[in-house]
Amino acid sequence: MKRSIPLAIENNAGAGQVTSLFNHFRKIVAKQARLMGLLVFFSLVLGACSPANPQPKGGDQGNSQPTGSAPVALEWSREGGIAGFCDNLLISTDGQAVLSNCQKESPVEVGRTQLDADQLALLQDKLQKLKPFDFEQSDAATADAMTVKLKFNGNGSAEASDADKQALLDLASSLATGMKQ
To answer: Which domain covers residue 29, as residue numbers?
Structure first.
């Protein structure tokens, strides 16, 4: 039994359109294959550039959490600079502070301390007055740039002023410096 070919192709009517459509489809598939190949290549290159065991940065401190059940009031991190800092500080609402170093595969606790009365009063005052905010400060250097991040979990309704942010940055920085000595 003979199979019939569609009438348009038997009579050659529209065969050029079918061939043209097929060639267009083939070009699209070839372009997609090249793009997919590039995507796979760049994924492999970027994957090879990343560390095998990424280090927690910023607020993720592994097990280096303040003791007790008090929530975290402030998270501070300092990375980079000519000294190669990688410090993370967590301060709970009850004044417990934990400093860890993130230069190793997993964070290493450097020290723990309790805020003194003045530091705790400052923290409590800011917690009551200020809304939560995130702040990041980086210097203009490229090769040895220093980045300081601050996440504050306030319970208040006021926006943090530059002076408020600086007071909390100073508190965190002085605690970190004191615990490293």
So the answer is: 7-49
User: Would you give per-residue pLDDT tens digits along the chain (181 residues)?
Assistant: 555 555 444 555 555 666 776 676 677 766 676 666 555 565 655 555 544 444 444 444 444 556 566 899 999 988 876 666 788 999 999 999 999 887 777 777 889 999 999 999 999 999 999 999 999 988 776 667 888 899 999 999 999 999 999 999 999 999 988 887 7
Residues 35, 81 within the same domain: no
Phi/psi of residue 2, nearest 5 degrees: -85, 130
Residues 32, 21: Cα–Cα separation, whole Å: 17
Same domain as 39, residue 120: no
H helical segments located in 1-138: 7-10, 15-49, 117-129
Q: Is 4 exposed, middle or buried (0-12, 13-18, 19+ CB in 10 A)?
A: exposed
